[in-house]
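SAMPLE LOG
Freezer: B-3
Tube label: C17
Construct: single chain, 286 aa
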Amino acid sequence: MAELARSARTETFPRMRLMEYGTIAEDLRSFMEQPPYCHIFSRPARTKAIFDSLQQVEFVHPLLDIYGYFKAHDPYTYRHILTVFALSRLLAQDFFDDRNELSRELAAASNHDFGKICVPLGVHKRSTPLSEHERMQLSHHAAAGYVLLSYYLMDPNHPAAITARDHHERCDGSGYPRGIALQNRVVEIVAVSDMFDALISPRPYRPHSYDLRTAMEELTVLAHKGAVSADVVRALIGCNRKNQPHYTECTLSHEQRGTPPPDNLYLGAIPCSYESDGNPDGDPKA
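STRUCTURE (predicted):
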């Protein structure tokens, strides 16, 4: 995989700011006005700082065109990529002091699921359990995204390529595709944001989304197990509270009162093997 990602690229492509491509800026603002994001992004100063930062993110046109593809053919993935991008940028403010470093590193979040362009649309939109072959196709998106971004960014160590490859890895080594113990703060932030948005959003295979309490309890359980960063989950909890305290003022409760939605195929985020419900790693469609 690494050798393929290092393949030489001779073409040159024009670059453009992400927020100036198509209707991305308008669409992102619309997504941020929907619950629960309307509360998470309720502080005007913080929201403005996020958009000011996002305005500096730019990519070559072939990568930008992937946004257009998802908007036209897979609106869920389009929305998911943008909301995870904004949420990751918000959570990262608690962990990075250098704004330039923050903008550079978190640009990676905007491409975390680009490998899904290699997955047949029929797999994305299935409302019934996937076959074993389809599960393997879907879980391949992490490796595919790494190769795709490494090629167009001409750097297999670029934060965007690393994030695409590793956002389904877990801190305890229970994730995929490599089963490594995740130790990259940026990817930890994207991983938690990715799971959170997957839980609270409608999915083709789940007619009802998780309510906010149950989604936070799912992530808290994973943090207690050591699968995801406890600090990042605490930061997410802080963003969902009324006064939005710093993550150091938040605790992880062991109490569980939420109820997963009916007709739910989600089994949890960290089983190592493929489960019969069609979701490797609990929810590879995230």
